[in-house]
UniProtKB/TrEMBL annotation:
<dbReference type="InterPro" id="IPR004526">
    <property type="entry name" value="Glu-tRNA-synth_arc/euk"/>
</dbReference>
<dbReference type="GO" id="GO:0006424">
    <property type="term" value="P:glutamyl-tRNA aminoacylation"/>
</dbReference>
<keyword id="KW-0067">ATP-binding</keyword>
<dbReference type="InterPro" id="IPR049437">
    <property type="entry name" value="tRNA-synt_1c_C2"/>
</dbReference>
<dbReference type="InterPro" id="IPR020059">
    <property type="entry name" value="Glu/Gln-tRNA-synth_Ib_codon-bd"/>
</dbReference>
<dbReference type="GO" id="GO:0004818">
    <property type="term" value="F:glutamate-tRNA ligase activity"/>
</dbReference>
<dbReference type="InterPro" id="IPR000924">
    <property type="entry name" value="Glu/Gln-tRNA-synth"/>
</dbReference>
<protein>
    <recommendedName>
        <fullName>Glutamate--tRNA ligase</fullName>
        <ecNumber>6.1.1.17</ecNumber>
    </recommendedName>
</protein>
<keyword id="KW-0436">Ligase</keyword>
<feature type="domain" description="tRNA synthetases class I (E and Q) anti-codon binding">
    <location>
        <begin position="508"/>
        <end position="557"/>
    </location>
</feature>
<feature type="short sequence motif" description="'HIGH' region">
    <location>
        <begin position="114"/>
        <end position="124"/>
    </location>
</feature>
<dbReference type="InterPro" id="IPR050132">
    <property type="entry name" value="Gln/Glu-tRNA_Ligase"/>
</dbReference>
<keyword id="KW-0648">Protein biosynthesis</keyword>
<comment type="similarity">
    <text>Belongs to the class-I aminoacyl-tRNA synthetase family. Glutamate--tRNA ligase type 2 subfamily.</text>
</comment>
<dbReference type="GO" id="GO:0005829">
    <property type="term" value="C:cytosol"/>
</dbReference>
<keyword id="KW-0547">Nucleotide-binding</keyword>
<dbReference type="Pfam" id="PF03950">
    <property type="entry name" value="tRNA-synt_1c_C"/>
</dbReference>
Length: 571
């Protein structure tokens, strides 16, 4: 390589490195810039063995700069690329609306409040994706609070606590605080006693149907005017577990003639006979309802902004009564509609998925047929691809549809550059090969010649997929090998002149040798698919995402040399 070319390589590498570092707000990466660099500069390709060394030095220099120095330097070298970055930043900022009155708070604090009754389905990813993004936008705090105060109806799954935190980490976020509501029951008791002493709550032993009739008629419960001492004593008996389920509740005293019956004297505490699955909470029998527990916790943890479903508008109105009693300021609230995900034949419901697993219809939460975050992770989908798709839905109060194709497109942008290429033949047809080289040598990646080539031997025969066998007398191009003609149930080698493809329209097909292949089981949402991969696929590592050319991307799940299990990612 002469000095002029070396200088050109350095100049182009510096632009790519600066752009890469600023785009991802991190150090530039040699691997990430080599593809675009070589693709845009064909004259560099003959020197592929020397280029990475030059690029590495440039990347080291760029990574030693401050962000402002990088911006200034890119503005000198390629102002149009700096404008492109700024335009992308402006576009990203517009995906989510500004938080209301954010400037009035010392710190924006938001919470994700999962019920840990099972691992998360895909729809659950929307809340941490949006709240995590807001946290980054405002340099705020991200709280995870497990609302696990229902030991019966939505009984907590002990394994779900860690599973949910792992999902949040996989999506790319780290909570500033993690807490369990079941650790805070005494705090709720204290606030209930304070509320009782204010005259804001009373114990009620009405049967459910009886109270419902009174409520709907806007008539007060006969227990509503008990004296404070009696209410405190009966609440103490609730706390001591002296009542069975359904015998006594504590109600927040609201407006018995409120136009919305759902807001009239709502239940704050009820008795639950079923012990909590957590040992630390198994002795409690008087449990707060979600609106009371969540309302108290939001205030005590300094939550400034709440996002909740449009169908939960009554929650804020119920909690407002408690806030008024305590003279607290209610957080800002944003509502959104439900998200519906396409593609799956399984209902996006924790209880439904759990039942299908118990019935043996799904292998587990990471079964490729399950609409769960664990399933996407096992398939090789990056959390970033999910977050970008969820944030892209915005904050509409109407229901929104999320196309899995959006997640796949995002993920393809992430994995394509790093994914090595291999051939996988399903239901292969064996064809003898007459003449031709002893092996084919397609590149590991079409944009990265520096990664080298695969070696696929041709021991007298190959396997191709049935639909790729041309009619007798017709030709196909075995990728990385050359052109062959179907002659008397064999492939006759006719040369390696690529004009057969470019000018004569000969189809390019993938193939594997007839012997010494890697047997592959590919797990997909439609069921398992089997096939044979080329020998070099044995070098792919577990957890690596590869692309089976003309088939799609897949994550390597198990690898033993001559057998492998992969999970289908996407086309």
């Amino acid at each position: 390589m002469d000095d002029d070319l070396r200088a050109k390589v350095r100049a182009e590498a510096e632009k790519h490195a600066l752009f890469n570092a600023l785009k991802h707000d991190s150090d530039a990466d040699v691997g990430a810039i080599m593809g675009p660099l070589m693709g845009e500069n064909p004259d560099f390709r003959p020197h592929g063995d020397e280029i990475p060394g030059i690029v590495g030095g440039v990347v080291g220099d760029v990574n030693g700069m401050s962000t402002e120095e990088k911006r200034e330097r890119l503005g000198e070298l390629a102002p149009e690329q700096l404008e492109e970055l700024d335009a992308e930043d402006d576009e990203d900022d517009q995906l989510l609306p500004d938080l209301p009155n954010a400037e009035e708070y010392d710190e924006v604090r938001m919470r994700v409040a999962p019920n840990p009754n099972g691992p998360w389905h895909i729809g659950h990813a929307r809340m941490p994706a949006v709240i995590g993004t807001y946290e980054e936008m405002y340099d705020g705090s991200f709280i995870v609070r497990f609302d696990d105060t229902d030991p019966e109806t939505k009984r907590p799954d002990l394994s779900a606590y860690d599973a949910i935190l792992e999902d949040i980490e996989y999506l790319g976020f780290e909570p500033d605080e993690v807490m369990k509501a079941s650790d805070r029951v005494e705090t709720y008791y204290d606030h209930a006693r304070d509320l009782i002493e204010m005259g804001g709550a009373y114990t009620c032993s009405c049967e459910g149907e009886t109270f419902s009739d009174l409520k709907n008629s806007a008539e007060p419960c006969p227990h509503r005017d008990k004296d404070v001492e009696t209410v405190l004593a009966e609440f103490a008996s609730m706390v001591d577990g002296d009542y069975a389920s359904g015998e006594m509740v504590l109600r927040v005293k609201t407006d018995i003639e409120h136009k919305n019956p759902a807001l009239r004297d709502w239940v704050a505490f009820r008795m639950v006979d079923t012990p909590h699955p957590r040992e630390e909470a198994e002795d409690y029998r008087a449990w707060p309802m979600l609106d009371f527990q969540s309302g108290v916790d939001d205030h005590l943890t300094g939550v400034t902004h709440i996002i909740r479903g449009i169908d939960l508008q009554d929650s804020a109105k119920r909690q407002q009564f408690v806030y008024d009693y305590f003279d607290w300021e209610y957080p800002e609230v944003l509502h959104w509609g439900h998200v519906q995900v396409d593609e799956y034949g399984v209902k996006m419901s924790t209880s439904t998925i759990k039942q299908l697993i118990e019935d043996g219809e799904l292998d587990g939460w990471d079964d490729p047929r399950a609409p769960t975050i664990q399933s996407l992770r096992r398939r090789g989908i990056h959390g970033e691809a999910i977050v970008d798709a969820m944030v892209g839905l915005g904050m509409s109060t109407s229901g929104v549809d999320l196309a899995m194709s959006t997640i796949y497109a995002n993920n393809r942008d992430i994995v394509d550059d790093a994914a090595d290429r291999y051939f996988l033949v399903r239901d292969g047809v064996e064809m003898a090969v007459v003449g031709g080289p002893e092996a084919g040598e397609p590149p590991l990646h079409p944009d990265h010649e520096e990664r080298g080539r695969r070696h696929i031997p041709v021991p007298g025969a190959v396997r191709v997929e049935p639909d790729d066998v041309p009619a007798n007398g017709e030709r196909v191009w075995l990728k990385g090998y050359g052109c062959v003609r179907h002659t008397r149930d064999a492939f006759e080698y006719t040369g390696d002149d690529i004009s057969a493809v470019r000018e004569e329209g000969v189809d390019v097909v993938h193939w594997v040798p007839a012997d010494d292949t890697v047997s592959v089981t590919m797990r997909t949402a439609e069921g398992d698919v089997t096939g044979e991969a080329e020998p070099d696929f044995a070098d792919a590592d577990v957890d690596e995402v590869v692309q089976f050319e003309r088939v799609g991307f897949a994550r390597v799940d198990e690898q033993s040399g001559d057998e492998a299990v992969v999970y289908w990612t996407h086309k």
